[in-house]
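We store sequence with structure; for instance:
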Amino acid sequence: AARDRQIKRLQNETTLSQLKVEINLQRPRLVTLKQLQGFARTVVVAGSEEYVVQAVQEAAALLDQIKDRSICIIPVVLRGSQLDQSTLSELISDPEVLLAPILVDQWRAWMADTMKEAGVDEGSNVYVGLRMDGRVRASGKGLPPWKKFIAELTP
């Protein structure tokens, strides 16, 4: 049973590493999460539109420290249409911090699988924080503990 859980976790992380985001530096560029490994600590915030906006707002208040720690935020609205990226860009305009999920249905499917595996009700507001190597570092229900992440990670 432990081995099955470990295999499932590795499959889950492999699937996650193939999901795509858009980084808008000089021009928009599509990358997989695997391509961000070694450069970024990614935090996926997924849930209702209100939750995603609130999570990004809270991060915006700590933007300098978040950027210093190479944290990237990927907002995923789990139900309804994806938020217009410009809405979130008003909160965090730094394209190295706020990334746009591409092929949102794949992100939603990954989140649904992950939540089911963890025994979390589908549609809950959750976050998943990844280490630089792409492995899941922290996850939970509710708003991401941005201050705790900042305190634990070295710039």
Observations:
- The mean pLDDT is 92.
- The helical segments are 2-18, 33-36, 49-60, 63-68, 85-89, 104-118, 146-152.
- The radius of gyration is 15 Å.
- The beta strands are 20-24, 28-32, 41-47, 71-77, 100-102, 126-130, 136-141.
